[in-house]
């Protein structure tokens, strides 16, 4: 389910966070699904449990998951993600990518078509 690149310069906990976010966005992990326990995931991935704990804490801080004491970690409903800061960050990144795309010659209508193609993939998004 989760593969990490130990050769990458990106820290393992960030790779783990990205993988979980990807699974949530692609609706492999649905809201209120329980995440693997830290101990189990550490054994599966053969990484330090503290690394997983750090990823889970950051995901919880960012609003992607929530913890029920004694029960584990669960996927948070999409609306509970801290929108304001995250939205600003995503908008800034998107502006940079779009500016670069237009600079290298991708036409606006092609970008629009790509956005239209992506929209139906995400439930609850504006069309």
Automatic annotation (TrEMBL):
<dbReference type="Pfam" id="PF00392">
    <property type="entry name" value="GntR"/>
</dbReference>
<dbReference type="InterPro" id="IPR036388">
    <property type="entry name" value="WH-like_DNA-bd_sf"/>
</dbReference>
<dbReference type="InterPro" id="IPR000524">
    <property type="entry name" value="Tscrpt_reg_HTH_GntR"/>
</dbReference>
<keyword id="KW-0804">Transcription</keyword>
<dbReference type="GO" id="GO:0003700">
    <property type="term" value="F:DNA-binding transcription factor activity"/>
</dbReference>
<feature type="domain" description="HTH gntR-type">
    <location>
        <begin position="10"/>
        <end position="78"/>
    </location>
</feature>
<dbReference type="GO" id="GO:0003677">
    <property type="term" value="F:DNA binding"/>
</dbReference>
<keyword id="KW-0805">Transcription regulation</keyword>
<keyword id="KW-0238">DNA-binding</keyword>
<protein>
    <submittedName>
        <fullName>GntR family transcriptional regulator</fullName>
    </submittedName>
</protein>
<dbReference type="InterPro" id="IPR036390">
    <property type="entry name" value="WH_DNA-bd_sf"/>
</dbReference>
């Amino acid at each position: 389910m989760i593969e990490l690149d130990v050769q990458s310069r990106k820290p393992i906990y960030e790779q783990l966070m990205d993988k979980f976010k990807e699974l949530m966005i692609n609706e492999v992990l649905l809201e209120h699904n329980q995440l693997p326990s830290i101990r189990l995931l550490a054994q599966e991935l053969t990484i330090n449990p503290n690394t997983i704990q750090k990823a889970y804490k950051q995901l919880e801080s960012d609003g992607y998951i929530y913890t029920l004491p004694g029960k584990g970690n669960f996927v948070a409903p999409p609306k509970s993600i801290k929108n304001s800061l995250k939205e600003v960050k995503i908008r800034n990144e998107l502006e940079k990518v779009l500016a670069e795309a237009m600079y290298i010659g991708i036409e606006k209508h092609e970008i629009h078509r790509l956005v239209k193609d992506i929209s139906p993939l995400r439930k609850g998004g504006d069309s």
